[in-house]
Amino acid sequence: MLFDLDGTIIDTIGDIAAAINRALAEYGFPPRSVAEVQSFLGNGSLMLMRRALPNGGSDELCREVREVFRREYAKGMLDNTRPYDGIAELVAELGERGVVSAVITNKDDKNAVPMVRHYFGDLFTCVRGVRADNDRKPSPEVTLSVLSELGFSVEEAVFVGDGMADLGVARNAGIDFVPVGYGYTPPQRLYEECGITPLDDVAALRKRLLEIT
Fold it and tell me: pTM value?
């Protein structure tokens, strides 16, 4: 079972928005609302920065401000961030059924790994974030690599996510997709793209995953 991180297993938006605004302020740019930052998520930190900067910004400026964001986020990424209620219990229950769970995220790997371990211990067998700008979802490379490392085929996998990049990577890798509607993408948008009704909460997610495992 493959899970996205932000908006799927952990609610991270408050700390991301706070770090974005500290980085923007350092360069004299106006702050962004939490709702705006939420709409910017899904395609990695460089695209997040490009969307947050007024008028997009040059590649050089985006990368420069991103480094400040990364510094600020590392300082406070656990301040207000919390797992969604019931996720740890669900992953543990899946494990009891012999289901191997992993996290595939567009969050920087150096943040994703300690964050997941902090909140979930070793419930997830593998956690993989972005290590280079070219291995972001919806590219299937990292997802397929993780499946290979774990010894599973795409036919045996399911991807659970709240975003368009999650849907994209599932399609690109040929993996079944389970959308959740409690995260950061409007459920109607997800439904329009995948034709599957997003699950309203973790209880509904649990029911669906136990049905297919």
Answer: 0.94
Q: What angle do CA 19, 22, 25 make, to 5 degrees?
A: 150
What's 152's domain CATH number?
A: 3.40.50.1000
DSSP string, 148-162: HHHT--GGG-EEEES
Predicted pLDDT of residue 129: 94
Same structural domain, 140 and 36: no
Q: Which position has the token pair 């700390």? A: 15
Strand partners, 103: 3, 127
Q: Which of 76, 95, 127 is the last residue of a domain?
A: 76
Which pLDDT tens digit goes with each residue over 175-198? Answer: 999 999 999 999 999 999 999 999
**CA 168, 189, 80, 53 torsion-angle sign:** positive
CATH no. for residue 37? 1.10.150.240
45 & 141 share domain: no
As beta bridge partners, residue 158 has 176
User: pLDDT tens digit string along 120-172?
Assistant: 999 999 999 999 877 899 999 999 999 999 999 999 999 999 999 999 999 99
Q: Which domain holds residue 49?
A: 13-76
The structure tokens listed for 75 are 């300082």
Domain boundary among 76, 96, 124: 76
Q: What is the strand order of the sheet 126-130 is part of? A: 126-130, 102-108, 2-3, 158-161, 176-179
Distance linking the first and last C-alpha atoms of the chain:
9
6 and 21 belong to one structural domain: no
